[in-house]
């Protein structure tokens, strides 16, 4: 009996059914608003960051905690997702929690190809070149971001070309 209580206490606390990771007002106002509404109407408590981070701001510890306390994360990869260091920090944290906390991760590819997210030459490749020039080609941060994108881009997924 003691072992049952100790194993149940080691399970992570889950405050959210779903955490939505995305970038951009166009994604927020189109696809994401419909997804959020559908999740909400089905009784799923969903974390949707209501404020866009301004240039130079850090991701709040509350945002990272919300990722840790979610059962499922839906990452909506769009054309400019990788241009944001904050989105890349999010996806790195998400993939870390997938491994360490059994977080369920569902990628959605919104008007981008999965191969592009995994390291293609289009917008994701251009964004990573910019990050390498800013943080250094051998930067641990950039290495983590690339690995997280590759791993997330390799998961079972939904691919949407139309809004």
TrEMBL record:
It holds the Pfam family TIR. One of its GO terms (biological process) is signal transduction. Residues 14-163 form the TIR domain. One of its GO terms (cellular component) is nucleus. InterPro entries: TIR_dom, Toll_tir_struct_dom_sf. SUPFAM superfamilies: Toll/Interleukin receptor TIR domain. It comes from the Eukaryota. The keyword NAD applies. Keywords: NAD. PANTHER family: DISEASE RESISTANCE PROTEIN (TIR-NBS-LRR CLASS), TMV RESISTANCE PROTEIN N-LIKE. This is TIR domain-containing protein.
């Amino acid at each position: 009996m003691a072992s049952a209580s100790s194993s149940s206490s080691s399970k992570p606390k889950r405050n959210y059914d779903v955490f939505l990771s995305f970038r951009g007002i166009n994604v927020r106002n189109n696809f994401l608003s419909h997804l959020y509404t559908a999740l909400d109407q089905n009784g799923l408590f969903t974390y949707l960051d209501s404020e866009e981070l301004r240039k130079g701001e850090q991701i709040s510890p509350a945002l990272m905690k919300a990722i840790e306390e979610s059962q499922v994360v839906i990452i909506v990869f769009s054309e400019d997702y990788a241009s944001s260091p904050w989105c890349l920090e999010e996806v790195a944290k998400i993939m870390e929690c997938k491994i360490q906390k059994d977080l369920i991760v569902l990628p959605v590819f919104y008007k981008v190809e999965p191969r592009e997210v995994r390291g293609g030459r289009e917008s994701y490749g251009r964004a990573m070149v910019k990050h390498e020039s800013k943080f250094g080609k051998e930067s641990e941060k950039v290495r983590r971001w690339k690995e997280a994108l590759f791993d997330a881009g390799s998961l079972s997924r939904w691919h949407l070309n139309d809004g």
